[in-house]
Every structure is written in structure tokens, then in C-alpha cells.
Amino acid sequence: MKETINVNLAQQAFTMDKDAYVTLTSYLDDIGRRLPADDTDTLPDIEARIAEIFRERVPSPMMVITYATVLATMQQIGNAEMFGEANRPLNDAEQPHVGKKSTRRFVRSIDDKAIAGVCGGIAEYFGIDSTLVRIIFVVGVIAGFSTGLLYFILWLVTEKQSRTTTK
Predict the structure, then answer these.
(1) Which of these, 59, 70, 63, lies nearest to 23 by C-alpha position?
(2) From its phi and psi, is residue 10 left (phi > 0), alpha (psi between -120 and 50) or beta?
(3) Which residue, 7, 23, 47, 114, is the most exposed by fewest CB within 10 angstroms?
(4) How far apart, in Å, are the Cα atoms of 15 and each of 7, 21, 28, 89?
(5) Quick check: helix, strand or coil at residue 112?
(6) Within a 10 A sphere around the Cβ of 65, how many other Cβ atoms?
(7) Could you tell me the CA-to-CA distances from 90 to 31, 37, 43, 95 in Å, in that order?
(8) Is the separation of the CB atoms in 119 and 155 below 8 Å?
(9) Could you tell me how far CA 151 lies from the centroid of its own chain?
């Protein structure tokens, strides 16, 4: 099962696979970087042409635009390099994270703890409420799962969050 996203392209609604959306967004951003800063007409025209091609290739508005459809459309329009050299560099938010290490680590929380901070650490790592994690652990113990053993093992093998760590 693939995740889909609703997209408005040239004032037309499309449903796209997530990988198709990421590819198309990257392609349009690359073209936008290659156009002059004062050119406000070309990119909307390209988006309108892409929308036309999507409507030709996908007969029903209920169908999903796939990665293959996006690649075929990009091939029909042409490489981003056809629009010249890049005038603007990628922003940090736009740069791909290939080869970059994540600084996010799983540690026991020293601020949000009931026993040892394991549930608080899990909640911080996944960005969810620690109460939900605690409820899951308690229900798991009551239901006979080995969440108690898992908690104890995590308590032993994970380090405490340092006071200097920022969120």
C-alpha cells in the first residue's frame, strides 16, 4: 500500500503517490532555480503543461498519478538542465539528506520519567505523548506480552539524556 497526497497543480486537483510527488516537487524546484529571479511566468506555464499531460495520461480524476507517470511527463517536458544553469543554490531545507547522519538518538529522558525515563525517551524519539507510550507498556504487561522485560532491557542498554542536550 502506498501513501497518496492530494495536490493542486495549475488549479487542478490530482491524487499522487508520495514518491511521485517528491520527484515532481524536486523537478519543479530544480527548474525554478534555473529560471531568472524576475521570471514569474515560465514556471506556472510548465505546471499547467504538466497538468495537461497528467489529464491526458490519467483518464479519470479518481485515478492516482504514479511515479512512472511523473517520469514519463518529465521526459516529455525535458531535463531541468534545458532551462539553463542554476542561478540559486539549494536551501538547507531543499537539499537532499543523502549521506547526512541524523543527530536524533534514543536516550532515557531525565525530565519526563516515572520509573527510569524509558517511556519518556521513546516518546521524545518518536514525537508522541509519553502517556500514550506508558499506557501501551502497561496494557502490554497486563495482556501478557513481554513489554515489562523490554522496558527493563531498554533501561539497562540506553543511556540517560544529558542535561546539555537540546530538543
Answers:
(1) 70
(2) left
(3) 114
(4) 6, 9, 17, 30
(5) coil
(6) 23
(7) 12, 14, 17, 6
(8) no
(9) 29
Residue type, position 141, single letter = V
- Set of cell numbers at residue 84: 539553463
For residue 7, what are the β-bridge partners? Answer: 14
**CA separation for the pair 118, 129 (Å, rounded):** 13
Note the pLDDT tens digit of each residue in 101-115.
556 777 777 777 778
- pLDDT at position 70 is 92
CA pair distance 107, 110, nearest whole angstrom: 9
Mean pLDDT over 73-80 rounds to 88
Amino acid at 70: V
Q: 83: buried, middle or exposed (CB in 10 Å: 19+, 13-18, 0-12)?
A: buried
Query: What confidence tier does 94 reach under pLDDT thresholds 50, 70, 90?
Result: very low
Closest CA to 27 of 46, 53, 4: 46
SS3 92: coil
